[in-house]
Each structure stands twice: as structure tokens, then as C-alpha cells.
């Protein structure tokens, strides 16, 4: 005879709740400041406990990160498990979209773990977290296939990934918006993306982001260091890469590295200013001759997708390592980033005169996040023309 399972005691539930609370707080801090810059004492302070008390729940910071990722994975698994097995396909898709929107709104400041901070998970946890996200995209793609039976399989995956990215975009910015408005706006954006069509993929296959080629012999040492730092920063994160690593990749050894950059933070700042300058030149050139807002917006989309798709290592570092910049550079570059977003918002409002700035801002962040996630993925399922089409689908939702 099967013995009934004992119910968890109140003290066990409190310990479990405290563990979840700590993981949630930690995830928010990791996403805001970066995994390496957040100490256990900061997590404890935010939770209202002493530093040593945190060890009653976690052995170290790595364990907290793993638990935070597991909780997000578990929440996604619950969304997938709750998908009805029957009913009209679009109704089932809408159920998934609504549940995902609710999840992102509830965990807004920690969901962004999926984008950059998961680099610091141990390999098994990283694999599990990635598998959950892959399963989510695959399930949405399958449902989309039921709703749009003639849609090619590759397009289903691309649209599903873009819709999930649009929903997750709420975690990438701090725009003030009520939970109800955020849920409604994200739902509209995701469904609009899932309903759109895609132009044929020109390359015809999944590709990987290009690896920087060999630099010519006349390139300066400073330039070699800047270029050589990008891929390590992108894949391993700023704190996991040393100046010696960068020097070795550039073929420059020893103290010679420091003749060009006094510190790794100075090198990172140089990368950021380069990215900001390239983006500013590309976008201003693209829109300066425009005769009306629609033409300017098309030029801006072309320029931004070209920038992110064509130089994804530079763009990825620009997006992921902001918290590791020196304070003065961080403030200056934050202003540049905000002005760039507002340029998009002004054009969207000018093109869609019935759209409020708040709604336009939500759509712009969704469109930008689609570009970031799909162009910087390890395996690209969309080419540049398809990305542009997805951007306009988000902006029109």
C-alpha cells in the first residue's frame, strides 16, 4: 500500500520561500549590475538579512544564479504544461502568449538572465536553461504551424523566436508602464509578429555570426587589441577575460598591452565609444536625406539592422557590458543610448499619428530586442531582410 507523502512543515516552507526570495533579488541585481559586480552582502542587504545568513540557503553566488535560472525555467515549463491539448490553434497560441506576458511582467527585472548573465552558469545549468528556451520557441512554432499550415518550418521558428523576444523585451528597459498596459501591449506585439509573413531567406540556411577576419599587417596595435577583445568579451564576459588574454589574441605580449590602454576598463570604454560612434554615423547618414517620416524610419531600420547583423560582436559587447564601464563613461553612454531610442520613438509617432509615445516606446524596445536576439544568436535563423520585416511587424502592432 502506498504511503501518503508527508506535507512540508511550516519551517520548510519558510526556508523554501526565503530561498526563492533570495534568488529573485539576486537575479534582479545580476541583470541590473552584472553577475560579477554583485556581492553576496548586497543580496543579503536587499533581502533584509545578514551576510552570513545567506549561507543557510546557498553555498555561494554561483548556486544562487543557478537557482534563479532554474526558477525561470520552471516558470516557462509551467506555461508550456498549461497549453490546452485541444481548441482552435490561435486560441492556444494566445493562451501561451498571455501566460508568457504575465510571467515577464511579474519577473520583469530578472527575466533578462536569459540574454547575457546565463553565460556565467556552470555548463549543466547553462545547458538546461538553454534547452528550456529552445523548447519554448519550438512549442510556439509547432502551434503556429497548426494555425498557419502553409508556413515553412523555418519561418515558424523565426517568427516564434521573434515573438518570444518581443515579450522578453520588457526586461531590457526601465520604461514606466503599468502591469496591465505592459501585458496588453506585449500581447499585441507578439501576436502581430506571429501573424506576419516573411520574405524568402536569401542564404537559404541557418548561419553563424561571422568571426572577425585576419587584420592586415598595417593595422595599429591599438586597433588589434580593440578587435581582439570583442569575441572574448562577448562569449565569456568582461570579468572572465584578462588583458593577457586579449594581448595574446592580438599577438601582443607583456607590458606592451598597457601602453595602449591603462586598464581593461579603459579598453572596454574605447569599445563602447567606437560602437556608439559607428551607430551614430550609420543612422544619421541613413536618415539625413529623408523627405518624410516613413522614409526616415525605413532608413533607420536599415542602418540599425546592418549595424547589428554586420558587426554582431561589437553590438553584443555594447549591449551586455554597460555595467562594467567607468562611472563617467557609463553616464555619458547611457545618455547616448536613450537619445537613440527616442529617435526611434519620434519617428514611429510621426508615422503612426494615432500612437502615443508610451506605446511607441514599448514597440521600439520590442523591435530592437528582436534584432539583438536574432542577429546575435549562436545560430542565425533569419537574414537581414527578414529581420527588417520583423522590426516593422513589431512597430506596426
UniProtKB/TrEMBL annotation:
Kindly indicate which segments of the sequence are annotated as binding DNA. 39-58, 242-261
What Pfam families does the record tag this protein with? TetR_C_24, TetR_N
- GO MF: DNA-binding transcription factor activity; transcription cis-regulatory region binding
For this UniProt entry, which residues form the secretion signal? none
Q: Which domain of life is it from?
A: Bacteria
Work out whether the entry's keyword set contains Metal-binding: no
- Keyword terms of this UniProt record: DNA-binding
Q: Does the keyword Membrane apply?
A: no
What are the residue boundaries of the HTH tetR-type domain, all occurrences included? 16-76, 219-279
PANTHER family given in the database record: HTH-TYPE TRANSCRIPTIONAL REGULATOR RUTR (PTHR30055), TRANSCRIPTIONAL REPRESSOR MCE3R (PTHR30055:SF237)
Q: What is this protein called?
A: TetR/AcrR family transcriptional regulator
Organism expressing this protein natively: Prauserella cavernicola
Amino acid at each position: 500500500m502506498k504511503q501518503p507523502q508527508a506535507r512540508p512543515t511550516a519551517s520548510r516552507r519558510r526556508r523554501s520561500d526565503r530561498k526563492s526570495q533570495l534568488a529573485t533579488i539576486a537575479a534582479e541585481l545580476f541583470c541590473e549590475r552584472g553577475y560579477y559586480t554583485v556581492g553576496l552582502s548586497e543580496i543579503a542587504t536587499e533581502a533584509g538579512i545578514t551576510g552570513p545568513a545567506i549561507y543557510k540557503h546557498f553555498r555561494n553566488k554561483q548556486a544562487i544564479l543557478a537557482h534563479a535560472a532554474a526558477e525561470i525555467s520552471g516558470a516557462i515549463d509551467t506555461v508550456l504544461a498549461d497549453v490546452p491539448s485541444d481548441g482552435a490553434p490561435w486560441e492556444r497560441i494566445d493562451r501561451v502568449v498571455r501566460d508568457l506576458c504575465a510571467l515577464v511582467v511579474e519577473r520583469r527585472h530578472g527575466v533578462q538572465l536569459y540574454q547575457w548573465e546565463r553565460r556565467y552558469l556552470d555548463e549543466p545549468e547553462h545547458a538546461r536553461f538553454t534547452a528550456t528556451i529552445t523548447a519554448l520557441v519550438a512549442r510556439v512554432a509547432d502551434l503556429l504551424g497548426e494555425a498557419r499550415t502553409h508556413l515553412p518550418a523555418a519561418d515558424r521558428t523565426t517568427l516564434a523566436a521573434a515573438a518570444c523576444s518581443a515579450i522578453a523585451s520588457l526586461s531590457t528597459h526601465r520604461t514606466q508602464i503599468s502591469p496591465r498596459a505592459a501585458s496588453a501591449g506585449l500581447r499585441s506585439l507578439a501576436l502581430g509578429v506571429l501573424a506576419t509573413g516573411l520574405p524568402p531567406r536569401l542564404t537559404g540556411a541557418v548561419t553563424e555570426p561571422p568571426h572577425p577576419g585576419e587584420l592586415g599587417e598595417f593595422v595599429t596595435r591599438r586597433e588589434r587589441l580593440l578587435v581582439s577583445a570583442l569575441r572574448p568579451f562577448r562569449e565569456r564576459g568582461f570579468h572572465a577575460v584578462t588583458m593577457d588574454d586579449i594581448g595574446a589574441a592580438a599577438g601582443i605580449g607583456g607590458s606592451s598591452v598597457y601602453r595602449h590602454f591603462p586598464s581593461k576598463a579603459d579598453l572596454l570604454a574605447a569599445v563602447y565609444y567606437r560602437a556608439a560612434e559607428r551607430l551614430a554615423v550609420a543612422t544619421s547618414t541613413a536618415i539625413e536625406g529623408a523627405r518624410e517620416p516613413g522614409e526616415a524610419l525605413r532608413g533607420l531600420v536599415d542602418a540599425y539592422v546592418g549595424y547589428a547583423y554586420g558587426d554582431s560582436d561589437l553590438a553584443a559587447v555594447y549591449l551586455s557590458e554597460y555595467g562594467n564601464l567607468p562611472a563617467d563613461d557609463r553616464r555619458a553612454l547611457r545618455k547616448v543610448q536613450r537619445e537613440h531610442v527616442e529617435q526611434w520613438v519620434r519617428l514611429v509617432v510621426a508615422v503612426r499619428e494615432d500612437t502615443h509615445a508610451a506605446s511607441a516606446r514599448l514597440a521600439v524596445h520590442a523591435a530592437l530586442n528582436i534584432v539583438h536576439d536574432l542577429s546575435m544568436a549562436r545560430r542565425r535563423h533569419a537574414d537581414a531582410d527578414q529581420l527588417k520585416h520583423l522590426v516593422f511587424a513589431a512597430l506596426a502592432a
